[in-house]
Each structure stands twice: as structure tokens, then as C-alpha cells.
Amino acid sequence: MLVLSRKKNETIMIGETIKLTVLEMEGSSVKLGIEAPEEIRVLRGELWQAFQEQLAIARELASGEEPESFEQLRQLLVEEDREEEPEPSAGKV
């Protein structure tokens, strides 16, 4: 990992097309401006992680192997539907 120190309005170049600029520093928070070509996806770390987890789930589902937890959820939903079904009324034709 490369560690760099930058002050407000200073930049970091990544390759020839990505430019990071320190916009503001407040306490332990730093605001960065990122200039990158449209075809390069720029995401916050936690969003990237969530995206990767969703891809892993999609791959698992596409493989045809169903996780056990989905089967448990399906059973709970079926049981819940049975409990909510109205009982037939007596005396109505």
C-alpha cells in the first residue's frame, strides 16, 4: 500500500486518467474529489463490498445450488400463508 500525505487542494494522479483532489479536511474526515473516465466505476468501499456480495449470491443462485437458508425461509413463508388463509364460513352457500 502506498501512503501519501496531501494538503487541501493537493492532488494525486493514478495513471493518466484518474485524479484525486483533497477538497476539505474536518477533524478525522476528509472529502475527496475524484475525476475519472465514465467507464471506470468509482464506489465507496462499503458499496463495492455490498456489490461483490450480491455478485457472489447471484453466482451461487445461477449454479443451481440452493443455500439451505433459502429453503428454511421458503418453509416459513408457506407456513405463514397457511395461517393467514381464511376458514370457510358456515351457513353461506
Q: Could you give the order of the helices and strands?
A: EEEHH
Please work out how many helical segments DSSP would assign.
2
Measure the end-to-end span: 77 Å
| Overall average residue pLDDT | 85
Task: Assign a percent range to the helix content.
Answer: 25-40%
The strand order across the widest sheet is 1-2-3
Strand and helix layout:
Layout: E1 11-14, E2 18-26, E3 29-35, H1 45-62, H2 68-84
Antiparallel strand pairs: 1-2, 2-3
Q: Your description of this structure?
A:
With 93 residues, the chain is of the alpha+beta class. Helices cover 38% and strands 22% of the residues. It is built from 2 helices and 3 strands, in the order βββαα. The chain has helices at 45-62, 68-84; strands spanning 11-14, 18-26, 29-35. A 3-stranded antiparallel β-sheet has the order 1-2-3, with no helix packed on it. The termini are far apart.
Q: What distinguishing features does this structure have?
A:
2 helices, 93 residues, three-stranded antiparallel β-sheet, 38% helix
